[in-house]
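Marked as duplicate of an earlier ticket. Keeping the data here for the record.
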Amino acid sequence: GSGNSIGVTQFAGGVNELILGETSGSADSTINYITITDSASNTKNYMPSETNSTGSTGTRTLDNSSTVSVVYFNWDSANPKNNNACAIQLEAAINHNNGHGSTITATRTGATVNLSHDLVGSAGNNATLAKTNTANNVATISGANFTGGITGTNQTNTPYIVLTDNEASPTEKKYVPVSQGDAKSTGFSGSIGDVT
């Protein structure tokens, strides 16, 4: 399915909220991250970091001693340190092998990271986005679910084109358009819908 986007807005008031939760013993309310779950239920928590490299993984311990596994994106390595640079690092973390590199593709425009599911059709619509302890003035999420994926089906009364060569024994070929992601590949020979 087609995806959602994550936008980062300019920090204000002198507090860099993205690095809260980095120190040992931080309250749960300061540990912030963005959660993406793909359609195969692979969940990754993307956490900004001042010290850990982009795409590296770690575990955060919460106040109740439970843990959260995270994939870091290092905004501190950016020069200059601004929202566009932070979005570059988030994009890289999502596309990293430790992130959703094989199921979700992140692309960036300015400080906005757009996501699309690599599954074709409506199956990609099952992916979700969420954020934890991240204020709207730090990062916004355009929607909780991926949308727009459509699975095409071959109907009866299937449209097709007939080409007949001009030989002594004419050969007739029927060509049927199929939707992107259809199981029939170019050059398929057989039946599609009601066309053989």
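See parent ticket for discussion. Residues 11-24 have pLDDT under 50 and may be disordered.
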